[in-house]
Design a protein that fits this description.
By secondary structure, this protein is of the alpha+beta class. About 25% of the residues lie in helices and about 25% in strands. It has 7 helices and 12 strands. The strands form 4 sheets. A 4-stranded antiparallel beta sheet has the order 2-3-1-6, with helices on one face. Helix 1 runs parallel beside helix 6. About 30% of the residues are buried.
Length: about 220
């Protein structure tokens, strides 16, 4: 039976060796390119291992993410993605349908819960746009290696690889030991590097850090 489209996508076959907080950050980095994320749920209980839920503000973003990332090699395991069977509590509250189910429960307590799972994560700041409009970055002459800076402290090679390997010609990410805020990304040629540079300029891996991308110095 087909599950009707909704704002929440369900992911399984997730690599359960990854720590919960890193998993949430990586899911955010990967899925936030499709639209604003309201909540990410990932639990390490036996029943929920290898599974996660991503709640989008817009239905179109959930649909696009499901189509684009189906089978994506996330920590070396292909993700299986489908719509969740029911809308997330966060979304049903926004729609105003949540009260129907929860009339007898303590609404004051519930009202404080929607973003509890990511409340302490900068990535969850819901007002932050994913892309900054018209980021002006001084640049070097075009070539096949991109230089990234203004990266958040928790950035890792996997996160950046997931962002950039959706673009044709991607070869590798190189981090700089001892410097968490910069990295290099190599492509097969300058045109492919240029496409990725334009698409991800100003991308926010977390709410406070808009990534700046230039061509690397030759």
């Amino acid at each position: 039976m087909d599950i009707r489209p909704n704002h929440t996508i369900y992911i399984n076959n997730v690599n359960d060796k990854v720590k919960k907080e890193e998993l949430k950050r990586s899911l955010y980095a990967l899925f936030s390119q499709f639209g604003q994320i309201v909540e990410i749920v990932a639990m390490k209980t036996m029943k929920m291992r290898g599974q996660a839920f991503v709640v989008f503000k817009e239905l179109a973003a959930a649909t696009n993410a499901l189509r684009q990332l189906q089978g994506f090699p996330f920590y070396n395991k292909p993700m299986r993605i489908q719509y969740a069977k029911t809308d997330s509590e966060v979304i049903t509250k926004v729609k105003g349908t949540y009260g129907d189910k929860e009339k007898k429960k303590d609404k004051k307590k519930k009202a404080q819960e929607p973003l509890a799972s990511l409340a302490n994560k900068p990535a969850a700041a819901s007002a932050a746009p994913v892309y900054s409009a018209a980021v002006q970055v001084p640049d070097n002459p075009p070539n096949y290696i991109l230089f990234l800076n203004n990266l958040p402290e928790e950035t890792n090679e996997m996160m950046l690889s997931m962002l950039f390997n959706q673009f044709p010609g991607f070869k590798e990410v190189r981090l700089v030991p001892g410097k968490h805020d910069i990295a290099f990304v190599e492509f097969e040629g300058e045109p492919q590097a240029g496409v990725a540079k334009d698409a991800l300029q100003g991308f926010r891996i977390t709410a406070t850090c808009a990534m700046k991308i230039t061509y690397a110095k030759k």
